[in-house]
Structure formats: C-alpha cells, structure tokens
C-alpha cells in the first residue's frame, strides 16, 4: 500500500506527463483552467493544496472522468431497501379498545 505522500507524488508526475503529452504549456493550462502558474508548478512538484484547482486542471487535461465512479450512488437490493426503510420506525403496539358497558351479556334463560 502506498503512503499518502507517494500517491501525491505519483499523481503530480502524472499531471505533468499528461500536460506534456498534450503539448500544453503551463501558461496555456493556467489560462484555460484559471489556476495560477505558481499553483501549477507546485502541483507538478508534488504539492496539491487545492482540490478545486486540481479538478480544474483534470478537466482541461480531459481526465475528469476518473472521478465518475466516486459520484455514482451504490445500488441496493429491494431487500436492503425494505430493511433500510423499516429499520428506523419502531412498530407501535396496537392496544385493544376498551369494551363498552352497553353491550352487557344477557343471562341465559336456562
């Protein structure tokens, strides 16, 4: 398993690689993404401080789709849905209504 620092370094290197493969200068990327040149240099050097700036760069580089799996909601089975809906509602006991004294039993004629 990679450490957070190693993951950040690899992502930063990939950003630079993507930019160079597409023959986009840092200045052009800065203009198109609205991210400052100094931020782009720092991100390519392994310092990704602003997630919003990172997303803007990924969008311009055509790689925003890597985040789509994170945006999709997990599907649940009908049984799981039923349990989820009914788990939060405790069942209330129904009590028998009190009988009215109007309906008194008649004594048997026998």
Count of alpha and pi helical runs: 6
Strand content: under 5%
CA(first)-CA(last) distance: 90 Å
Q: Which second-level CATH architecture of one domain applies?
A: Orthogonal Bundle
Helix content: 40-55%
DSSP summary, beta strand count: 0
What coarse outline follows from CA principal-axis ratios? rod-shaped
Profile the largest sheet.
none
Order of helices and strands: HHHHHH
For the residues shown, what is the average pLDDT? 85
> What would the CATH topology of one domain be?
434 Repressor (Amino-terminal Domain)
| C-alpha Rg (nearest Å) | 32 Å
Question: Uncertain regions: pLDDT < 50 for 5+ in a row?
Answer: none
CATH class of one domain: Mainly Alpha
**Oligomeric form:** single chain
Determine the structural class based on helices, strands and strand pairing: mainly alpha
Could you state the CATH homologous superfamily of one domain?
A: lambda repressor-like DNA-binding domains
Please supply descriptive tags for the structure shown above.
mainly alpha; 110 residues; 0% strand; 434 Repressor (Amino-terminal Domain); 53% helix
List the helices and strands and how they pair.
Elements: H1 4-21, H2 26-33, H3 37-44, H4 51-60, H5 68-71, H6 78-87
Brief characterization of the structure:
This protein is mostly helical.
Report on this model:
The protein has 110 residues and is mainly α. The protein has a domain at 4-63: lambda repressor-like DNA-binding domains (434 Repressor (Amino-terminal Domain), Orthogonal Bundle), CATH 1.10.260.40. 53% of the residues lie in helices and 0% in strands. The chain is built from six helices and no strands. It has helices at residues 4-21, 26-33, 37-44, 51-60, 68-71, 78-87. Helix 2 (26-33) crosses helix 4 (51-60). It is rod-shaped and about 110 Å long.
